[in-house]
Amino acid sequence: MGPPLRLDPFSLPVRFAAADEAADGRLRIVDLHRERVVLRRSLRGMRMAVSLPVAAFRGVAIRLVGKADQAPTAIAVVLEHGDPALSLPLFSSSESDDIVAEWQSWGRVLGLPLLVAERDGSLREPFARLGALRIEAPTWRRRRHMAVARRRPARLLRRRPSALPDMPAVHRGEREIIARN
Fold first, then answer.
1. Which helix (H) or strand (E) element contains residue 118?
2. Which CATH architecture has domain 5-124?
3. pTM, whole model, 2 decimals?
């Protein structure tokens, strides 16, 4: 990855040039739409265009850019494909301030899962998912700042518990009074 790159995920379709080691001039032209990606390049004088649906890509990944034995020089958001030659850079910068916002924006706009690239090149999902639904551990609902809030239902938090007398009053042998009409 060379100079900083920033494509706007909210202004699709977009056309940009990307590095391609196998192409003539080491350059390819990419047309990125919400539903498809068109790669145009020339290989040994023969022009070609490859049209792929966005669903053919594995996801949107964060990658550290740099040599394996040195500290990373930049961080990038990449549209990852099963074939590494078809992966596309979407954002790269030496500053890591906006990387998470860019990563999540691209994943949301393209409807692809978010991925994290490990140093060995493998990809993993940072969040557990079930289909398109992200799974997280259940959390306690926060109620007021009371210690008993987790143990008592909200209705009981509004009421005072009543105290029963030590000796309840028992009335034996009395007639019951019933009001009629």
1. none
2. Roll (2.30)
3. 0.64
